Amino acid sequence: MRPNEADAVVGMVADLALSIPAPLPKLTPQTLRDETAGENALLDCVVAENANGLAGCCVSILIFSTWRNLRGIYISDIYVKPEQRKDGLGQKILEASIRRGAERGAKFVKLEADVSNGGAIAFYDRLGFTLKPDERLYILEADATTRLLSQATR
């Protein structure tokens, strides 16, 4: 992703949220630019373009699994504009993101799909992703994290 594409990527992530439906993400173009810049970038963002501009994006982050003793990537968001779907663009973007992760040592891919997003679930199934029914996603949101840390025993 080039820095001038951050606004369009943030817009696509918002479109993804609206399509599920889910709350709008808090991601800003400036945060995306900051977190994808430089040697110590936290995020990676792959974009696909066509004659009309950006057609899709995939945002990922490098992770480590102690269970696998391997680096991997976590796909935070993948989105293809509706008029571009069914042309293989989603798979191309995902493969490009995985390839970039592999260049940094990633050996596996982890992601989530909203249970209401049947198209995404079918897409991941077709590509060979497996559902882990024995795992549950837990999140400690920012306010709860602050509360926990303020109450933490020292």
What's the helix count? 5
Mean pLDDT, all residues: 95
* SSE order, one letter for each helix or strand: HHEEEHEHH
CATH topology: Aminopeptidase
Distance between the termini: 42 Å
Task: Characterise the protein shown here.
The structure is a single chain. This protein is 36% helix and 25% strand. The model has no long low-confidence stretch (mean pLDDT 95). β1 and β2 (53-65) form a beta hairpin. It has one domain (3-151): Gcn5-related N-acetyltransferase (GNAT) (Aminopeptidase, 3-Layer(aba) Sandwich), CATH 3.40.630.30. α1 crosses α2. It is globular, with a radius of gyration of 16 Å. A four-stranded mixed beta sheet has the order 1-2-3-4. It contains five helices and four strands; from the N terminus they run ααβββαβαα. The chain is of the alpha+beta class and 154 residues long.
Break the fold down into its secondary structure elements and pairings.
Layout: H1 6-19, H2 29-35, E1 43-50, E2 53-65, E3 70-80, H3 89-103, E4 106-111, H4 118-127, H5 142-151
Parallel strand pairs: 3-4
Antiparallel strand pairs: 1-2, 2-3
Helix pairs in contact: 1-2
